[in-house]
Amino acid sequence: MTASADNRILIVERDETTREMMRMRLVSRHYEVVCCDKADAALKTLDRESFDLIIVSRDLELIAGQTLIHTIRAKPHLTAVPVLIMIQESQVTELLLSSEKGYDDFLTKPVNPFLLQLRVKMNVERVRERVEVNALTYLPGNHAIEKVVQKKIKSGEKFSVIYIDINHFKSFNDRYGFRRGDDVLRHTAKLLTAVARELNSQGDCFVGHIGGDDFIAVTSVELEEKFARKFIDDFDRIMPTYYSEEDQKRGFVRAKNRAGKMEDTPLMSCSVAACTNLYRTYQSLAEVASDAVEVKSFLKTQPGSHYLRDRRSAPPPKLEDIEEFIKKEIPDPNRKAIDPLGQILLGAGLLTEAQLELALKKHFETGQRLGQCLISMNLVSSEDVGRMLEKRLNVPYFSLKKWRPSREVLRMFTFDFVTAHRVVPVEVTDGMIKLAMCDPFDLKLLDRVEQITRLKPVPCLTLEDEFEIFLSENFKTQDSSRAG
């Protein structure tokens, strides 16, 4: 019996003759084989590519084979991959009596080609049964998912579970057939795996397939949003290409429903619901799933792809909503009261009343700022919000979204000063300092900046969401040794 063409094997062996013999034997049995002669090269390969089985020689240069195996097992995306260790026949007794762990099976040198073939086949099939790998996507199934989550619960680790659901997948299946639907599921799995592989250097990222069009990811709390938004961007860019040009232009699929009536269904999008034990305690994956169902139910009512974390157990947000900011009383007596943000955008024709109602519903249910809700629902862009506020407030809007700061300018303020006052130095020129401020009418702050820098401050408006993203991506890496 030959192996599936999808089976990929990594061989890490310093001896070229042994390596080549193993490669040829496995390739002849229709395995795809990648070889490395050093441990560091193997680790780089594992960060870039996926494998069904890894064979590691105990005798490697620089990094011992057993050390390499421990490193492999520490990587979340490799926990389900079987590892075979190769040893000299004289080392068998030592291996069996030792406390070495991490390998699933072993081979002795010189390697018997028939035994090699048998051990590889047995371990590939065994791991698929053990983790209930999905036959279509080859992602770990429910057993493996529950094992990963339960391990984190038991260790007291803070984590996030992200549920990914493809919206309108059934309509796509009905119109284009199950084969094309399977292609969509496989591509979704590849997108999730690619995001996990990209972010794994920053923390844990485990991806699984619950079944059908439901997927799951388990990450650190810090990586949750980055993972979700990266996946949504990739999904929304790729999935329209599965539709015909006609359906893409229309933006929906026209087909008969179960009642036999013609119905228009939007193109596929995704609902990404996240739950975390940051603010509450979970005892099982079932409890996490119960909370996620409610979040997904809300997301399903929204058009397009969206990400939302369950924040019902979280403390109230400390930052005031942007609409509350522009409604609040301004110290300047000459300045007129400002309409709420929703009314500004509604009056400008950037929103319909129905869209504003949906955004307000999300705002009240999630605690997110109205501006953040509008942007995340793709109803308006952050630039739209910024430009409208610029006109209404008569203060120039400065977008931090694509701006790349110079190190010298950022070092003018400490990180603590920036976060406390929601201000970013943007540019210094001709005795003036341009400032991106969440509250450009903070006169006390402007006076203080002038005292500190001896430069005339020029305030510009920036949005809270853009400020937070900019802060996390840029400012924490800067030197904040200077007192603000």
- Major β-sheet, in short? 5 strands, parallel
Q: Please work out how many helical segments DSSP would assign.
A: 20
In total, the number of domains comes to: 4
Kindly report the CATH topology of the largest domain: Alpha-Beta Plaits
Strand content: 15-25%
What gap, in angstroms, lies between the N and C termini? 71 Å
Helix content: 40-55%
Low-confidence stretches: 316-339, 477-484
Structural class: alpha/beta
Global morphology = globular
CATH class of the largest domain: Alpha Beta
* Spatial extent as radius of gyration: 28 Å
Mean pLDDT: 81
The strand count comes to 15
Give me a quick take on this structure.
With 484 residues, the chain is of the alpha/beta class. Helices cover 45% and strands 18% of the residues.
Characterize the structure shown.
It is a single chain. The chain is an alpha/beta fold and 484 residues long. The protein has four domains: 8-131, Response regulator (Rossmann fold), CATH 3.40.50; 142-309, Reverse transcriptase/Diguanylate cyclase domain (Alpha-Beta Plaits); 322-393, no CATH class; 407-477, 2-Layer Sandwich (GMP Synthetase, Chain A, domain 3). The protein has helices at 16-28, 39-48, 65-73, 92-97, 113-131, 142-155, 169-176, 178-199, 221-238, 245-250, 285-299, 322-327, 341-347, 353-366, 370-376, 382-393, 407-410, 415-421, 443-453, 464-473, and strands spanning 8-12, 32-36, 53-57, 83-88, 105-109, 160-167, 205-211, 214-219, 252-256, 262-266, 269-276, 306-309, 423-429, 432-437, 456-461. The strands form four sheets. A five-stranded parallel beta sheet has the order 2-1-3-4-5, sandwiched between helices. Helix 7 crosses helix 8 and helix 8 (178-199) runs antiparallel to helix 9 (221-238). It is globular and about 80 Å long. Residues 316-339 and 477-484 have low confidence and may be disordered.
